[in-house]
Amino acid sequence: MNIFRLTGDLSHLAAIIILLLKIWKSRSCAGISGKSQILFAMVFTTRYLDLLTAYISLYNTSMKIIYIGCSYATVYLIYAKFKATYDGNHDTFRVEFLVVPVGGLSFLVNHDFSPLEILWTFSIYLEAVAILPQLFMISKTGEAETITTHYLFFLGLYRALYLINWVWRFYFEGFFDMIAIVAGVVQTILYCDFFYLYVTKVLKGKKLSLPA
Amino acid sequence: PVKKKRKDEL
């Protein structure tokens, strides 16, 4: 464990908690893409199956359980409890265009052709593009609530910190995982446009609105 | 460098 991976995990946890609290306290999921949240639940489910087979540390196990629990709770709040506030008309990204290619690629490019490894690879590739429905929805509505931009900021920051973690581990431990690194770079690049808007607008107290 | 396969990252 290094400081970059730890702050990355805490940033990820912060994003997940911010979103869950935003929906729970405002009793509304307006502006939130339910499709992205379903994809994140798929990412955690396919990646953390090793909860059943391997014990790495209390930290590792507890964080995985928290991530899975919060992501399913968020999906439940969006599609069940606060379904009336779900903005389905703007959450129209065709997720099959993400899941099918990602599924195919995880069979073609992986470290080991075993079920657990292919599912892990699928989750890595899927996480790289899982935010697209949310970014697409914001481009359609033309704006995002400030709390949603903070959620996106911490979510994007977490994988950017992981990139630094991988540089650190390569240098100090000789460890690297090309699949995770390439997917992580793609994932972080997808946030660049948002990061620019977040820094130039939201951090200056303005609302995040796109066409302007 | 060796590519350790133990998945210890989240």
Automatic annotation (TrEMBL), chain A:
GO terms for molecular function: ER retention sequence binding. It is found in: Cytoplasmic vesicle, COPI-coated vesicle membrane; Endoplasmic reticulum membrane; Golgi apparatus membrane. Keywords: Cytoplasmic vesicle, Endoplasmic reticulum, ER-Golgi transport, Membrane, Protein transport, Receptor, Transmembrane, Transmembrane helix, Transport. InterPro entries: ER_ret_rcpt. It is a multi-pass membrane protein. GO terms for cellular component: COPI-coated vesicle membrane; endoplasmic reticulum membrane; Golgi membrane. The chain crosses the membrane at residues 65-82, 119-139, 151-172, 178-199. The keyword Transport applies. One of its GO terms (biological process) is protein transport. Belongs to the ERD2 family. This is ER lumen protein-retaining receptor. It comes from Silurus meridionalis.
